[in-house]
């Protein structure tokens, strides 16, 4: 049983390897050999005075070909502050030392034993990036070189790394509502990727003539507008509601991460195009059928759904909700490399196994 | 962050304290403040030569009043041998040292931080026992003194402890298909509880004139038959299918652990009384409505459903499937006691928290 830190994961795992492991895992998922567990989101009141709520999330998955089952747990204090007419979901660093809590456990499918426990921060960022990268590889124009990123946080960074891993980028444009964050992010990207990166104060200027636009914000309102859509663009989003519904409807080809994870309750993306009757969400706009019928990334990767059909086509990938088998796929690569490099702390395996069973 | 062993849990937690913590948690669940996560059961092929399959299960829950969120993970190799016309589900001890794998993680609802990690063996046994004990307290006759147990394993032991915690037992009768196991179990119980305990070779003799019959086997076939039912009996089962459907239908009052966890796919209990039309399970016997409409243990504990109404009434508790908040409730007691006693290994908290978030 190995403990790995975020620094270990960062040192061991690279975006390219992550995308390659996903290519195999998504194909296996399409074939039905890799599986995804049911996601559970629990939210309760908590004994805090700041109005926060407690959130406990679980997701899991298995990639038998890699010999790994994975569970990811997030234990968060959430608050929902409003500023400038926008409501944001904020994870409060409420753990000692002003820290957050997300954990991944990796298990052997051959012996059942736990093989590793690690914080989820770096792997989580990489896996969201890697699924965007995998979709990009199958959907963006082969010569796509101008990347625009809306957002400047942790997730935005991974989106940039993923695009750079699969397309020959010549420039990166960054928009963030906070100009300092945008500038700092552009500088960091330029240093890490050796690709010119520039901050923009107006989002529509950042995305103009971009081949690829990736939204990676924590906004609960639309950050990408319909009037910004251009022929040939590939548009990605990691959060439901980031892309204005009318922009989505302009896309000739939409792929969703996993339709099974996109219940109508979650489909904020179509806000304004649906209405509720009792507890049931009713699609009042027939164009919504396009989104509801969108194939999954697994179908795209396995060739059961088509990728881009022409240079002018507008393509869109909705990268919502984690799939548990992502953590198993990337976790298998991580474990192999950790063993080879001798990284991580060993914990007594017998602590985490037992001589009884239920 | 504390590591606790099964021996620690065994030393710290007693059945009475567990039942008391459940009484509060089930009431909170009825009021909607304690919550139960969605259970996820994943099963895949595995690269083994013995025909086993890999099973990864997750369940979770939160009891905000106790300040604890809990996740339980089981990582098992399963095989399904047949012997004597019965099919059994066997968990193969495939981890190094011939061991099994089940883990519980406890989190603070106030800070989000992980507070403990422990194997699930002892707590799992106690929580199945404690929920049976809680039901028994509200359902069995107040003067019930003759206990019969069908089964002699790990779970059977906890069922006996639970019954002894809430009723003035005068004798315990044990049946197991393996007479040696039955005798050893009877001797162990007599030693631990100081109550006369006797092994039986015929199950119908063990249950005759018993006030309480608790089934705790790993049989996938019925082990308790309809002709054995007597007036005033309280009958419990921890596994779907243990009680013959016709025996169930004789009960005047049935309580199920949680109806939300009893999907028609799982309702083997009603085998022979249902049939499938496509993917839908059809109740072909109208008497099944009694089972389908049975109240939950939370409703019983909160007083929204009635317990026993007369000395002659036949009552039945179906204790299937874990509820995540059980682990949070018992976990809170466990943590308090571990801190007071100074038990457990301390692990660096900063390993399991992080300075980044997703």
UniProtKB/TrEMBL annotation, chains A, B:
<dbReference type="InterPro" id="IPR023401">
    <property type="entry name" value="ODC_N"/>
</dbReference>
<protein>
    <submittedName>
        <fullName>Ornithine cyclodeaminase family protein</fullName>
    </submittedName>
</protein>
<comment type="similarity">
    <text>Belongs to the ornithine cyclodeaminase/mu-crystallin family.</text>
</comment>
<dbReference type="InterPro" id="IPR003462">
    <property type="entry name" value="ODC_Mu_crystall"/>
</dbReference>
<keyword id="KW-0520">NAD</keyword>
<dbReference type="GO" id="GO:0005737">
    <property type="term" value="C:cytoplasm"/>
</dbReference>
<dbReference type="Pfam" id="PF02423">
    <property type="entry name" value="OCD_Mu_crystall"/>
</dbReference>
<dbReference type="InterPro" id="IPR036291">
    <property type="entry name" value="NAD(P)-bd_dom_sf"/>
</dbReference>
């Amino acid at each position: 049983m190995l403990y790995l830190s975020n620094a270990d994961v960062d040192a061991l795992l690279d975006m390219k390897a992550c995308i390659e492991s996903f290519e195999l895992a998504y194909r296996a998922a399409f074939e039905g050999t890799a599986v995804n567990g049911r996601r559970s989101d629990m939210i309760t009141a908590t004994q805090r005075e700041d109005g926060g709520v407690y959130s406990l999330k679980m997701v899991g998955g298995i990639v038998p070909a890699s010999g790994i089952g994975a569970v990811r747990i997030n234990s968060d204090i959430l608050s929902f502050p409003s500023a400038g007419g926008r409501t944001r979901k904020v994870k409060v660093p409420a753990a000692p030392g002003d820290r957050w809590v997300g954990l991944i456990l990796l298990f052997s499918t051959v012996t059942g034993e736990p093989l590793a426990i690690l914080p989820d921060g770096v792997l989580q960022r990489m896996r969201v990036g890697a699924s965007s990268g995998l979709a990009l590889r199958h959907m963006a124009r082969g010569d796509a070189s101008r990347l625009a990123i809306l957002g400047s946080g942790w997730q935005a960074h991974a989106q940039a790394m993923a695009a750079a891993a699969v397309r020959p980028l010549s420039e990166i444009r960054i928009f963030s509502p906070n100009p300092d964050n945008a500038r700092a992010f552009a500088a960091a990207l330029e240093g890490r990727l050796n690709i010119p990166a520039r901050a923009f104060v107006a989002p529509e200027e950042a995305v103009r003539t971009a081949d690829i636009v990736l939204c990676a914000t924590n906004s609960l309102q639309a950050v990408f507008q319909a009037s910004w859509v251009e022929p040939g663009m590939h548009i990605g989003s990691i959060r439901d509601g980031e892309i204005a519904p009318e922009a989505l409807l302009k896309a000739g080809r939409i792929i969703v991460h996993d339709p099974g994870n996109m219940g109508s309750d979650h489909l904020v993306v179509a806000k304004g195009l649906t209405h509720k009757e009792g507890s049931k969400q009713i699609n009042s706009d027939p164009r919504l059928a396009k989104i509801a019928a969108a194939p999954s990334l697994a179908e795209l990767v396995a060739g059961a759904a088509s990728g881009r059909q022409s240079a002018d086509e507008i393509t869109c990938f909705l990268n919502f909700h984690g799939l548990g088998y992502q953590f198993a796929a990337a976790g298998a690569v991580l474990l192999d490399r950790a063993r080879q490099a001798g990284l991580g702390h060993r914990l007594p395996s017998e602590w985490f196994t037992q001589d009884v069973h239920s």
